Each structure stands twice: as structure tokens, then as C-alpha cells.
Amino acid sequence: MNSLNLSHATRKTRVNKVLTATGVGLAVLASTTSMAASEPDAATPTVVIVRVAKPWYAPKALVTSKMRDTVPQYANAPGLAFKAFSFERASGDYGGIYLWKDAGSAQSWFNPAWFERVKRERGSEAFVRTFSAPIAIDNTPGGTPANDDSASVATLVEIPVPASLTPDQMVAAFKDAVPTYQAIPGLLRKYFTRSDKGTFGGVYLWKDEASAQAWFTQAWKDRVTKTYGQSAKIEWFDTPILTPTKDSKNGLPSGTFFQAR
User: Fold this and answer.
1) In a domain, 22, yes or no
2) What is the CATH number of the domain that holds 174?
3) Torsion of CA 99, 156, 160, 182, to 10 degrees
4) DSSP for the chain, written as a single string
């Protein structure tokens, strides 16, 4: 049977099985110098991952110390729900993983003046990627707390999305899969992400590397390869500082954010 002719119920069942087996969502890449949100996603919560090249002469401990100095400016940033200050392992670049209540808030922050300031003050251009995140979960009762000396790590997973699935079907499957991710040991937060760029995946925040490694086993990787015919791309980030919002107005719209009680 042609996959394009599958019934909605059949496709939804297949998506749920895939999400349960692989633990991923939909992902999108944006321009390195601007943020252009598509009209349908304008009110959707948005994840932004920022990377800036770390000077070769600056040790990681020094950069982390400088990060701590900037925490207050993010505590009440308009529209910002959560930020994890980060170091990408592959490159050593520093930056952050942000969750915004909508694309407009992200665009207002990452405006042309922001890019110019980063280049002037850091001596390097910022590389920015945006992700539409219709569903997010926080597995910590009361919300993941602030921590300026965290052992947590983050992972970004990307896999090509099956062509027969619509965005609405994917979001429905995300919602159905929430209980699965609420039960994963060591998973602090997950942002289910989606895009019209042909990939899906997820941004995960783990309490430590051991928790992440326990999930991303070789068996997990093999299931992904068997299901899609190609392997998942996984990026790793150390996240030494966690900063939740202190402003209730920055919270996500009702029905898009799931938090453990």
C-alpha cells in the first residue's frame, strides 16, 4: 500500500511507535545571521541554540565564570522561559540553549543589533539555530531550578521525517508520547521540535551524562537506523548553568507546556 494513502489512524499509530522507540521530535535550522519565523509558527514556543567560538586562550572555567556574571540579564528577559548556558562538545563553542514562549520573543532578542554586539564584543560571529517546539515537558516537580554549577548535559537529535506525516499528526503524536518521556530516568526537560525543513528530533536536558548515555544506547541507534534507513545525528552540550524565568508572563501558552506536579 502506498504510504500516502494510509488512514490518519494508521499513520498516527506508526508515529507513536516511532516516537516511543527513538525518543525524538521535529527540528529546524535557521540562518546564522537572522531569524525568520514562518507564519504558522509565529505563536509557537521556540528553541534557539546559540554558538560563539571560544577564544583558544580562554579556559572553559573562565568562560563559565563570565557566563555567571550575565545570569541576571536573562532572569526577566521578555518572553524567555528557560536558558541553559552551554558548551558544544564537538567544537568547544560556548553559548546557550533558550526556550522562548513564541517566535516573536526570540526574534526581538536576536535582532540585528544583537548580532553586531556579539561580533564586536566577542570578536566572533554568532551561529544561531531556531527550532519550533509545540510541546515541552519539565520532569522536575515545581520546575527545573536555577543552578550555576550544574553537571547537566543537553543533546540535540535530528532525523529526516517521514514524508507522509503532516505537522498536525506529528504534534498529536508528541502529545501522546509525553508520558513516555516523563518516565525516563534523569531527563529533566525535553522540547519536542518540528519543522518544514524535512527533519525531526528533540532537544533534551539531562541531569548528567550517565542519564543521557543510558538512553542513547547502541540499541537505540540501531532502531533509528532500521526505522529510517539512516542514522540519527546527535549533538552534545555541557550545560553548567541553568536559568529558569523569574517572570510569570514568560510562561508558555496553556496546552503547550507539560510540567510534572
Assistant:
1) yes
2) 3.30.70.100
3) -70
4) --GGG--HHHHHHHHHHHHHHH----B----SS-----GGGTTS-EEEEEEEPPPTTS-HHHHHHHHHHHHHHHHT-TTEEEEEEEEETTT--EEEEEEESSHHHHHHHS-HHHHHHHHHHHSS-EEEEEEEEEEEEE-STT-PPPBSS---EEEEEEEEPPTT--HHHHHHHHHHHHHHHHTSTTEEEEEEEE-SSSEEEEEEEESSHHHHHHHS-HHHHHHHHHHHSSPPEEEEEEEEEEEE-S-GGGSPPTTSEEE--
Q: Calculate the CA 103 to chain-centre distance.
A: 14
Q: Tell me what the mean pLDDT of segment 41-70 comes to.
A: 92
Total Cβ atoms within 10 A of residue 145:
11
Return all residues near 50 (Cβ < 8 A) that are at least 6 apart.
95, 96, 97, 98, 110, 126, 127, 128
pLDDT in tens, 82-132: 999 999 999 999 999 999 999 999 999 999 999 999 999 999 999 999 988
Answer yes or no: is 4 within a domain: no
Domain with 115, as residue range(s), is 9-246
In a domain, 45, yes or no: yes
pLDDT digits 0-9 by tens, 63-86: 999 999 999 999 889 999 999 999
Half-sphere exposure of 227 (CA within 13 A, CB side): 22
Whether 257 is covered by a domain: the verdict is no
Distance (Å, whole) CA 102 – CA 83: 14
Q: Are 107 and 78 in contact (CB under 8 A)?
A: no
- 234, β-bridge pairs: 157
Total-model pTM: 0.83
